[in-house]
Design a protein that fits this description.
Elements lengths: L1 E6 L2 E4 L4 E9 L6 E7 L6 E7 L5 E3 L7 E6 L4 E6 L8 E8 L12 E2 L3 E6 L1
Parallel strand pairs: 2-11
Antiparallel strand pairs: 1-3, 3-8, 4-5, 4-9, 5-6, 7-8, 9-10, 9-11
Length: 123
Amino acid sequence: QVRLVESGGGLVQAGGSLRLSCAASGRTFSDSAMGWLRQTPGKEREFVAAIRKSDGTTYYANSVKGRFTISRDNARNTVFLQMNSLKPEDTAVYYCAARRSSVGVVTLAYDYWGQGTQVTVSS
């Protein structure tokens, strides 16, 4: 099993920044990926960003490209999401997720999920 624990959410004004962290523990997979997804009440969960463990290749949703940066520290089994130029529409619960395969990471089909952390951007 894999356990994921997010931190770093909070309230920020539009234009501000937040950095989310996700610490992973338990079983690890050599060819895996970590991702961030988000969900607003009444809306579908959506993909935000992902990073492959093996080579650090990153993927972003068009809505966050150029504003958000995903990174990882493999030694600490931690992934980060740096969010800059935040907008009110970025308000959501952000979930860290892990996928056993690094193929097709731009998806909602992740194998393990954290509990989520709230990000609220005020206008």
